């Protein structure tokens, strides 16, 4: 009976792990800027299960967080700059293995949507028209790309640079994990990670 339960648990874990590696994650980001206020959110989902979600705070909220940390007396850890030459040396030795991870990372990414919308108003209507014209020219090229969109709306009434960015990606872990495991078997990579993790 115990053997059956353990086997069942292991099978479920195996299915979940394989699923995490094979079924793509969906990453979505939305940012908007109006005046000095930047708002947005980032979320990561897998099979409609939300793993991560974070609202991006305004600058005012960031300052409030910093003030709270100062009041609590939290001290930031100082980085030992004497370690930089060693880290650079290890990075150079590890680079051939790290590039494989990067290659697999970019291969595993696919863009579902990439959209940028600007509203631009400069102090001079002429400058507004010229900059908008440049962006329109760029947009005519960008908008040929599948799932990509770029637009600009000139504002001749007031000075402003507002806009929004929407980015939706799909990402598969499998080949990235395989490349990472292969890289981790190499001594320079292990030493580099160990050096970076040092306090």
Describe this structure in words.
The protein has 199 residues and is an alpha+beta fold. The protein has a domain at 82-197. It is 50% helix and 30% strand. It contains 6 helices and 6 strands, in the order αβββααβαββαα. The protein has helices spanning 2-22, 59-72, 84-108, 125-142, 174-184, 187-197, and strands spanning 25-34, 37-46, 49-56, 109-121, 148-154, 160-171. A 6-stranded mixed sheet has the order 3-2-1-6-4-5. It starts with a helix and ends with a helix. The model has no long low-confidence stretch (mean pLDDT 86).
Brief descriptors of the model:
199 residues; alpha+beta
Q: Note the beta-strand portion.
A: 25-35%
Principal-axis shape equals extended
Strand order in the largest sheet: 3-2-1-6-4-5
Instruction: Please outline the major beta sheet.
Output: 6 strands, mixed
Radius of gyration: 24 Å
Number of helical regions: 6
Write down the overall mean pLDDT: 86
DSSP, total strands: 6
Distance between the termini: 47 Å
Low-confidence stretches: none
What sequence of helices (H) and strands (E) makes up the elements?
A: HEEEHHEHEEHH
